[in-house]
Amino acid sequence: MTPTVFRVALRGEELLNNPRFNKGTAFTVAERKTFGLTGRLPSKVNTLEEQCERAYLQLQARDAPIRKNSFLQSLKSQNIVLYYTILRTHLRELIPIIYTPTEAEAIADYSHLFRRSEGLYLTFPHQDSMEEDFLEQTKGKNIDLIVCSDSEAILGIGDQGVGGIGISSAKSVIYSLIGGIDPSQTLSVVLDVGTDNESLLNDELYVGWPHKRVRGEEYDKFIDKFVQLVRKFFPHSLLHFEDFGVTNANRILKRYKDAHAVFNDDIQGTGAVTLSCAMAAVGVTKTKLSDQRYIVYGAGSAGLGITRQLRDAIVATDSVSEAEANKLFYLIDKHGLIKTNTPNIRDDLLDFVRPDEEWAGVKENGAGEISLLETIKKVKPTILIGCSTHAGGFTEEVVKAMAEGCERPIIFPLSNPSKLVEVEPKNANDWTKGKALLATGSPFPPAKMPNGKDYVIAECNNALIYPGLGFGAIISKSRNMTDTMIIAGARRLASLSPALKDPDDALLPDFADAPEVNFEVAVAVAEQAVEEGSAGVSWKKEEAREKVRRHLWRPTYGEYVYDKNGMA
Fold first, then answer.
1. Domain count, the chain
2. I want to staple 413 with a disulfide (CB 3.0 to 4.6 A). Which of 9, 65, 422, 562 is the partner?
3. Active-site residues (predicted)?
């Protein structure tokens, strides 16, 4: 393959200190002469593969995951191509280092680990200069993807203030690593509206705005000012909302989804990958989504996102009305089954409230609440989804009740990290005598089937789908990320399920195949965008595959030519 030629205006130390263009010891002899690097580098010219081997050995010398995370952050700030190459080479091993669970630890200690900027910091008291700050950061750039967080609900560890820049940055990395989006065309943003985390407010080293979290109208105006800047200057970009709190996440998504291509991974990404899992599972049982009865254990952003995504897919694929599809779902929170007399029901849950009269004669606890077990006994669900962070919430009695109600119970304990999973998949497999179709939110080892065969546990990981959803929307210049585009991506992922060839195999592809899987998702999304008229391009649906392939970014070194008017 002919290397890409870049016209570069940087020389000497400036070039070596630019992570986008730095090649380190991979600069050729000719490039070293041209760019004034001969005396600045040792004489040996390395290949990218040799550099990757050396960097991996250095990484392995760090024993603790947080030290590995710090090393990779340092590498990222030195040499983008080498950073992504080592990640692609050791994908399964290093994703937990740069993302959950290790990134959560890095974010929690962000102010103490801080070394250099990771993106754009927009702070509430500085909002008068927001446009100026935004343009300063994006000047001369073609931004396709903007990932932002207000840091209220980070990776299961809650409010982390300005440290949320770490989750925006990590998500941007995964879009490039797995989705193929050029990292130079991404922007990571933290919307610093304060924090209610007392430990941060009392920490003299905290680098964010030391103020209680802004809420209400002032918060909404700040968010809107940012969104309008995105719409004004990058109208064809994808705006990704990450780890917003439950009171704001769905509200913000609903407000802007018809005005711009916006996406919330906690709601739509979790919903989409779970939908893919469910589609694969009903493919195994040779039924339809509308034939199922669903219990969702945990009614926060993730649980509601999953419920709505499944509901919308039922409406779109099985020609069922929304009102009828709503009746297939039973949501459970800390007050038990959500029914008419449940206290303090959020407005966004109202579509799924069960009428009290349905439950006459069903055993309640002292507070008048109906438990998960009693709900299962009455409903006889076919699908049980956990996103509660209630470790062990799917007890042996609960799982066995699921197995009594259907031939192949579909059980998805999705809570992260693994210590918070609702049931160990090995136990669910044993308690159902190998009947259960399983997927988890974290990686788990295979479970043993009664016939001695290993049952591979599918990892219901958002990264199997959201980078492809995003790339498909970007490549087609979509005005919106529509529900039908998401369903098209989920259907394509489900079609790649190993279980469709062997019903005792995993419901989703192996995470190591995530780049290839997301390529297919991106093609499906772009095809749907063009077909339905959401796209802002003139090419035909049949051209989507080639368009996606041509625009994939991969970490390789280009050939440099000096040009004082070139890139800097």
1. 3
2. 422
3. 99 (proton donor), 171 (proton acceptor)
189-241 per-position pLDDT tens digit: 999 999 999 999 999 999 999 999 999 999 999 999 999 999 999 999 999 99
pLDDT 10s digits, 490-503: 999 999 999 999 99
The CATH number of whichever domain residue 337 belongs to comes to 3.40.50.720
β-strands 410-413, 437-440: how paired? parallel
Binding site feature residues: 242-243, 266, 416, 461
Distance in angstroms (rounded) separating the CA atoms of residues 291 and 278:
12
φ, ψ of residue 187 to 5 degrees: the values are: -140, 125
Tell me the per-residue pLDDT of 401-441, one tens digit each, with 9 for 90 and over: 999 989 999 999 999 878 899 999 999 999 999 999 999 99
Cβ atoms of residues 219 and 194 within 8 Å:
no
Does residue 82 form part of some domain? no
Active site residue 23: no
Of 227, 224, 229, the C-alpha closest to 240 is: 227
Q: Is the peptide bond before 450 cis (omega within 30 degrees of 0)?
A: no
Same domain, 279 and 293: yes
Strand order in the sheet with 410-413: 336-337, 329-333, 294-297, 383-386, 410-413, 437-440, 458-459
Same domain, 454 and 305: yes
pLDDT band with cut points at 50, 70 and 90 for residue 156: confident
- pLDDT digit string, tens, across residues 338-379: 999 998 898 889 999 999 999 998 998 878 899 999 999 999
Mark which of 217, 239, 260 sits at the end of a domain: 260
**Catalytic annotation on 99?**
yes
Which residues constitute the domain of residue 513?
464-551
Q: Are residues 322 and 180 in the same domain?
A: no
Q: Based on the domain organization, do 312 and 436 belong to the same domain?
A: yes
Same domain (yes/no): 452, 469? no
Instruction: Look at residue 9 and tell me if it is in a domain.
Output: no
CB neighbours (10 Å) of residue 385?
Answer: 29
Please report, rounded to a whole number, the percentage of residues in the chain having pLDDT higher than 90.
Answer: 89
Binding-site residues for (S)-malate: 416, 461
Is a pLDDT exceeding 60 seen at residue 1?
no
**Looking at the structure, do residues 412 and 475 belong to the same domain, yes or no?**
no
Look at residues 428, 460, 492 and tell me which one is the last residue of a structural domain: 460
Cα four-point dihedral sign 440, 443, 448, 451: positive
Angstrom distance (rounded) from CA 535 to CA 533: 5
Residue 48 lies inside a defined structural domain of this protein: no
Q: In a 3-state reduction of DSSP, which class is residue 301?
A: helix
Residue 161 located in a structural domain? yes
What type of residue sits at position 70? S
Residues 450 and 318 in one domain: yes
List 68, 76, 171, 477, catalytic entry: 171
- Lookup: tokens for 478: 């979509």
Whether the Cβ atoms of residue 199 and residue 228 lie closer than 8 Å to each other: no
